[in-house]
UniProtKB/TrEMBL annotation:
Name of the gene: moeB
UniProt keyword Glycoprotein present: no
Name this protein carries in UniProt: Adenylyltransferase and sulfurtransferase
Pfam families tied to this protein: ThiF
Record-level GO BP terms: protein urmylation; tRNA wobble position uridine thiolation
Entry similarity comment: Belongs to the HesA/MoeB/ThiF family.
Naturally occurring in which organism (per UniProt): Aliiglaciecola lipolytica E3
Record's GO cellular component terms: cytoplasm
Length: 339
């Protein structure tokens, strides 16, 4: 036990706590900046098993904040590089990697038999899919978000409220690290706090991080924290849910808000996406707001975009004049073709 003696000497850990960590299995979704900060501490602490999920590759612009990677990792899958570096930190930790994106379709399989989930993504849809699943299955979820100099870490689900209870609506103006920028140490700080939240939960320390949200502003060197144990879950009817593209029905009313190709600036059409029958409507959010399209009364509305944010906004517009079922899809850059 010499490897862990500096933490086992803590009364809050001890040999019994260390044994508990060695039997724990956590899922880390996102091997970007937050994951790169949290993962080395979790693996070094002696966790028994860590599963990594990420469908992205390392790029040069990642390296200022994703400090687990090296220049030689560029253009390689993040999960494979991360697993290799983490095994070099602690070869007693069993590490499995999944080079794919988490979706509503695979969330159940990926979360199977895990004791805790870390949401280290930069994707609204993935965060809500994880929260919905963890809340339903009573799995503790530690979720974080960071932008610029600011961010938060929260402990959700299991016996505590979900992410939706604190953030029932997406922000009207939302950006990500790619569009708005981020400071590397801010990401590292939030990721490290995520790791500590996870260890405290696994060790059953009190007060529990579940039901706690901590915010940090490293531009002005401030932090705050509050508990949300009594936060009310939104009703199912008031929430918007994400589905997998394979769950589309042939009779659905489908809108793809990625109507403009960001690389070429040209308008997408049904034909170029492989659809000879214009079942899918390609419009921008502004066109959706102006034209106010609507499904037939018996149809289900399915609205797609890249990250889920624009689809969420369009869904709220549609709800103002149509009362049917609405589902959302975050497609990334993949064309939306009917199965």
């Amino acid at each position: 036990m010499g490897r862990y003696e500096r933490q086992t000497c803590l009364p809050d850990v001890g040999l019994a706590g260390q044994k508990h960590l060695e039997t724990a299995h956590i899922l880390v979704v996102g091997a970007g900046g937050l994951g790169c900060a949290a993962l080395p501490y979790l693996v070094a602490a002696g966790l028994g098993r860590v599963s990594l999920v990420d469908g992205d590759e390392v790029s040069l612009s990642n390296l200022h904040r994703q400090v687990l990677y090296k220049e030689t990792d560029i253009n390689k899958p993040k999960v494979e590089c991360a697993a290799r570096h983490l095994r070099a930190i602690n070869n007693h930790c069993e590490i499995s990697s999944h080079y794919l994106n988490l979706t509503p379709k695979n969330v159940s399989a990926l979360c199977d038999n895990v004791d805790l989930v870390l949401d280290c993504t930069d994707n609204f849809a993935v965060s809500y899919v994880l929260s919905d699943y963890c809340y339903r299955e009573s799995i503790p979820l530690v979720s974080a978000s960071v932008l610029g100099f600011n961010g938060y870490v929260g402990g959700f689900c299991q016996q505590s409220p979900s992410l939706r209870a604190i953030f029932p609506e997406l922000p009207q103006r939302a950006q990500n690290c790619s569009s708005a920028g981020v400071m590397g140490p801010a990401v590292g700080t939030l990721g490290s706090i995520q790791a500590q939240f996870a260890l405290n939960i696994l060790l059953q320390l009190q007060p529990s991080p579940l039901g706690q949200l901590m915010s940090i502003d490293l531009r002005n060197l401030r932090q705050s924290s509050f508990r949300f144990d009594m936060a009310v879950e939104p009703s199912f009817e008031d929430t918007l849910h994400f589905i997998d593209f394979s769950d589309i029905h042939k009779d659905d009313w489908i809108v793809d808000l990625r109507a403009v190709d960001l690389q070429t600036g040209t308008k997408r059409s049904e034909a170029e996406n492989g659809n000879s029958d214009p079942i899918i409507q390609f419009v921008t959010l502004d066109e959706f707001r102006q034209q106010k399209p609507r499904p037939k009364s018996e149809q289900r509305a399915v609205i797609a975009c890249k990250t889920g944010l624009t689809a969420w906004r369009a869904a709220r517009i549609l709800q103002q004049y149509w009362q049917g079922e609405i589902n959302l899809i975050a497609m990334g850059e993949k064309p939306l073709k009917l199965p």
